[in-house]
Amino acid sequence: MNDEIVYSIAASTNINSNEISKYPIPEINELDINLSQLHRNYKIIRNLLKPNTKFMAVLKGNAYGHGLIPIARELENCKCDAFGLVRLIEAYTLRNAGIKTPILMLSPIAPYQVSWIITYNITPMVDNYKIVHYLEEHASNKNKIINVDIKINTGLNRYGIGSDKAIAFIKQLHNECPHINIEGIYTHLQDPDSNAEMTHKQIKCFDSLITNLEKENLRPKIAHIDNSSGILKYPEAHYDMVRCGIMLYGLEHKEGQITLPQGIASLITLKARILKLSTIKKGEVGGYGRNFIAQRNTKAAIVGIGFGDGVSRGWKEVLIAGHKVPIVNYFMDGIMVDITDLKEPVSEFDEAVIIGSQGKEQITWEDACRPLGSYIDEQIQHITERVPKHYFYE
């Protein structure tokens, strides 16, 4: 039983995780995650960068739904330079698991989180003096130096201090906060996928700020701006580090936004077992409500994965016996599919593939999200913790 499953179960019970690990529970669905493909993706992206450009892997959202601890451990073995997170609980989880790689919090922290930030050697993003005051006070009390990254707002208008105020802010930190080391400075691109004009404007603004900081000998050691799309489309903005999120997992936010480099692919196969086979007579309903009324005598299969596992209503098809078959109704714990047209024999507990390949057919995240009108990273986040994660090497 892998560590992430142990962590997930132990987090919701009082059972000792070592005890859990002795009694793995086979489930009727699972998320297979290919760690060999993760290594390939990492190496391909790393080779796009200059030798001295650092690589931050963004692991927010439970490593985009792939499992925080196992993915972090693999990337630490790859000598990844830093991890980007958003929630303190995720940073704590990695430190508690023995992960030593530098961690940057990519969103604001609250004053009551400061002591945890210092204790667990986590680098916070700062964009206002109020939080800096708390950091300086706690660091002084513990006689520690804490690294921070300053975020600059260049047009996303979410977090960050305005570029026109940044130099004064940095000078104030240097003059008033002896226990704070400004290690990095960064901004976030608003729409690098489709708005080149806006992106060039942001890069130009950031460039100008960096130049002015250099003139005053105030430039932090690490400047960074590019995300996954930026890495591919704006190599001039790789700077000292890039922040790679969804591309590392072989995915894009929405179909057609970026062209992934050759060799990069998804890590995930999502599959489940057939729990029941039945025949629904013409005119009868299948499942709740009147969502499906059989127009013919219909062979139906109930597959053991539903919206309680993360397969949203509106998901169109799955693979059974190497063929795509339509989903006709949805339940919390299963989906009903129409297998009438299959010529191959099908048995209860045969495997159904929700995302991945079976025979010569394939269903990708793009295929699944197209009828939903949804983003790929959003749908992956819907896969719940009751679907066990199975990690493997080829």
TrEMBL record:
The active site is at 60 (proton acceptor), 288 (proton acceptor). The modification N6-(pyridoxal phosphate)lysine is found at residue 60. Its EC number is 5.1.1.1. Its cofactor is pyridoxal 5'-phosphate. Transmembrane segments: none annotated. Residues 267-392 form the Alanine racemase C-terminal domain. CDD domains: PLPDE_III_AR. SMART domains: Ala_racemase_C (SM01005). PROSITE patterns: ALANINE_RACEMASE. HAMAP family: Ala_racemase. Catalyzes the interconversion of L-alanine and D-alanine. May also act on other amino acids. This is Alanine racemase. It comes from Clostridium neuense. The gene is alr.
